[in-house]
């Protein structure tokens, strides 16, 4: 069945590819945040444990929104962790950092998500894809606010 949403096949593919990059960064940050939730220690354990839970829950929900937009554009969303992280610049940790480094690492991760979202905005604008522009804009806004809050906690 053909897709007629006012975008060419090439434009839909280009937007979907930018969304796959955002999906990869978001997934890598989700995994890192969830791991930190499990492993944080120290005098701020309870507050950081709860903060990380709030953040990984938001990221988990974002994954679904991003993947569904890829599908709406007529492309398949990556279905494995390997496929998702193949486009991510956010790398897993080797070992368990201390609480301060966790905060710094997560702030940097949210900045990477924001960069991917802003890159996606430029692509989606070229493709006359305002729906994806809106999604990218929302993700950039959330990531930048979260990065600021994490930086303020160090």
Automatic annotation (TrEMBL):
One of its GO terms (molecular function) is ferric iron binding. It comes from the Bacteria. Residues 17-152 form the Ferritin/DPS domain. It holds the Pfam family Ferritin. Coiled coil: none annotated. PROSITE patterns: DPS_2. CDD domains: DPS. Belongs to the Dps family. PANTHER family: DNA PROTECTION DURING STARVATION PROTEIN (PTHR42932:SF3), GENERAL STRESS PROTEIN 20U (PTHR42932). This is DNA protection protein. It comes from Hyphomonas hirschiana VP5.
